[in-house]
Specification:
The protein has 261 residues and is mostly helical. It has helices at 10-13, 48-65, 76-161, 173-178, 207-210, 212-221, 224-227, 248-260; strands spanning 39-40, 43-44. A two-stranded parallel sheet has the order 1-2.
Length: 261
Amino acid sequence: TLGTQTDYRDGEAQTDPYSPEYIVPSGSVPELLTLATLTWGRGLPAGLAEVEMIERAREKRAWEATLPAMDNASQIAKRRKMMDDMERKEWAFREQEIEKLQEVRLEALKKLLQWREKNQNELDAKRLDDHWQNHQKAKEEKIKKIQRDCALMLRKLIAKRHNVMGKLERGDIIREYTDFASQTYTPLSRIGYFPDNHSERYVVKNLYLNTFAGLCELEASLPASVTQVKVKAPTPKHTTTKTGFIKRSARLEVELAQVHQ
């Protein structure tokens, strides 16, 4: 009814299967000892290849039991022939294994080449797509420029069609002053108007202000009240002391007068 919980998973704490010690009786050769070279992770647990290897080992042991004895000279040729046949059979089996291994390697190489070709195709497709996008952007920019130039030329042609014969038109003063983009507000330099030139014509020129004689004449024409200013000191509204401070009684009188008002 009790259980434990560890910090590790069972798979992390699992060790290799235990192989106990064994003793072989004299005169016996257990078949299980032929698998002593197989360990956990290297042949164990046994798969199809290991089962085929075990079957071949059994067949070889059975074949060795059928070999003629070496003590009889008449059986040596038969034994040699059987051994040659077995050797050819083993070489054929090894060739089959080599072919299978080569087929596996060839299949892996094919997959690797296919994967590389796929990546290269994707990269080429991406480059072509980027190149096509750049061409599309350049094409759109060129089309926009052509459209802008076309609109500009159309406006010029429409403006020329208003006065095809070059007749003189009478100016409309109301339209010129209602349109703030007209020549009245914004004259163009191509018709001979330069706003920065002849700016001194806007300066006020007066004889009385630019010459000393004019200043003297202007001063003589002015009344005395303008040149001779008389300042009258204001009379204090409150009773103050000799030092200039307002008395408290005067301040109270002002407040009472405000309240009364």
